Amino acid sequence: MMQDLLHSEPGLLNFGIVFAGAVLLLFVILGFVTYGILAERKVLGFMQSRHGPNQVGGPWGLLQTVADVLKLLLKEDTIPKLADRPIYIIAPVIAFAPSFMVMAVVPLTDKLQFADVGVGLLYYIAVTGLTTIGMLMGGWASNNKFALLGGMRAAAQMISYEIPLVMSVVGIVLLTGSMNLNDIVAAQENLWYIIMQPIAFIVFFIAATAELNRVPFDLAEAENELIAGFHVEYSGFRWAMFMLAEYVYMFAMASLITVLFLGGWLPLFSFLDFIPGAVWFALKFSAVIWVLIWFRATFPRMRPDQLMEMCWKVLLPIAIANIFLTAIVKEILNLF
Amino acid sequence: MELLNLYQNNYLVVFVFLCLGILLPVVALFFAKLLRPSNPFDEKLTTYESGNEPFHDARVQFNVRYYIFALLFVIFDVETVFLYPWAVAYEKLGIFALIEMSIFVFMLLIGLAYAWKKKVLKWI
Fold first, then answer.
1. pLDDT of A223-248, one tens digit each?
2. Residues A247 and A180 placed together within one structural domain of the fold
3. Quick one: A158 and A261 in the same domain?
4. Is A53 strand, coil or helix?
5. Which residues of A133-152 are buried (b: 16+ CB within 10 A; e: fewer)?
6. Which of A54, A74, A178, B98 has its CA 20 to 30 A from that of A141?
7. A67 with A189, same domain?
8. Same domain, residue pair A62 and A134
9. pTM of the model
């Protein structure tokens, strides 16, 4: 249906249909965030031999996050006197908007997708970069030493890790011959890119964890040295917007990893294709999310100098080498 | 015409997502404003500094390394923008483009090695 819509004459009706669909997707993502946070707390709890949330909403704590959101909604909103008011107010919006915008190009299944942009991958990477500005603005506007340090660290980390992130995907573009995410999934019909591009996958996964500001790379909001980093002065729903952006990015990045490396909605073996694509996508997506939570329970936080040096001295050379390795192997395969 | 429609529709979708991305925080904050209490007083509005009396301005001179990393980022990001079209068209360009691109990347790597040797990449 979406394909017909994309090929028809643009108009107000199309706008309305797409708007309704996007609102639906937004609610799906909000549902994911609600239960993603709960899953994270629960899994972390089990990994540390604790129970995790188990009071609100039955033994599984099913309403815990809902209660947390309601509490945040009723929290008083303070803006420090010394803060730069207009920038302080728009920073959460700038941090959140791109996190939802990237979902426009990520195909969830062959039917369930929105835009089919030819430069999908490039669009994703370009738009994620904008969140850095939101974080830096939040840190700067707060006029707080912890916040400014956190904002600066976030910016330095995110721009550094964007390079290996982008470079590692060039190998995939090389093999596919397209930046369209649908074409990339179609090219994995026989063999997933995680097997064809294992080096790229490892580099991408490390860089993605750093881009998401998650443990072991959560220096921007290191609780025990910077209190909460760039959002230390934010409270109530403004703070919730930063948190929401973080988890929506987690959704988007896990979807992107599924599409790029794990074959998107394609089944594991071709005889299993009676199971719908959406189920396959959900399974692979959940596996990626689970690994991210597992990381959080396993690795200690890195030091800022180790973090920056690992990016420029280890990941970047590996990512560049991978590009040329892929190109040379492709040339050799063409000879036969 | 068909392709033009596809192109326009694609970016219409992107625009819808942008609108929603801005609308959600605005609407949520509006409803929060109706619900939340507001009782500001001077002590509450001071800057948070772990309980100490806040002193000086937070916006001080910052370590220059952040800007050097930003410069490095710009150089390598422009390189990737150049790598992407090359990768897409690689099938048609063949081995000659591979040699050309390796010379280009090699020159950039000399720059990285120079920065490395000058200890720019070392974070103190």
1. 667 777 788 888 888 888 888 888 99
2. yes
3. yes
4. coil
5. ebbbbbbbbbbbbbbbbbbb
6. A74
7. no
8. no
9. 0.89
Contact A173 B84 (CB under 8 A): yes
Single residue among A46, A74, A102 that ends a domain in this structure: A74
Domain that residue A228 falls in: 77-335
- Domain match, A206 and A293 both: yes
Same domain for A319 and A257, yes or no, is yes
Tell me which residue in A76, A99, A177 faces B37 most closely, judged by beta carbons: A76
How many Å apart are CA A49 and CA B16, to the nearest integer? 45
| Number of A–B residue contacts, CB under 8 Å | 218
**Same domain assignment for residues A82 and A212:** yes
Q: How many CB atoms lie within 10 A of CB B85?
A: 13
Look at residues A74, A103, A131 and tell me which one is the last residue of a structural domain: A74
My answer on whether A68 and A86 are in the same domain is no
What was the ipTM of the complex prediction? 0.85
Task: Check B32 against A140: CB less than 8 A apart.
Answer: no
Q: Which B residues, 11 through 70, put their C-beta within 8 Å of a C-beta on chain A?
A: 11-14, 16-22, 24-26, 28-29, 31-33, 35-40, 42, 44-50, 57-59, 62, 66, 69-70
User: What integer is the mean pLDDT of A183-189?
Assistant: 85
Q: Which of A28, A163, A176 to mutate to test the interface with B (most CBs of B within 10 A)?
A: A163
- Pick the closest to residue B19 from A231, A135, A16, A138 (CA basis): A16
Record: contact B32-A331, CB cut-off 8 A? no
Write the pLDDT tens digit of every residue in A108-124.
Answer: 887 778 878 888 888 88
- The pLDDT of residue A3 is 67
Q: Which residues of B touch A6 (CB under 8 A)?
A: 5-6, 9-10, 13
| Closest by Cα among A291, A19, A187 to B23 | A19
Total domains in the fold of chain A: 2
Q: Residue-wise over A235-265: b if at least 16 C-beta within 10 A, else e?
A: bbbbbbbbbbbbbbbbbbbbbbbbbbbbbbb
Structure tokens at B64: 């220059």
Alpha-carbon span A332 to A143, nearest angstrom: 57
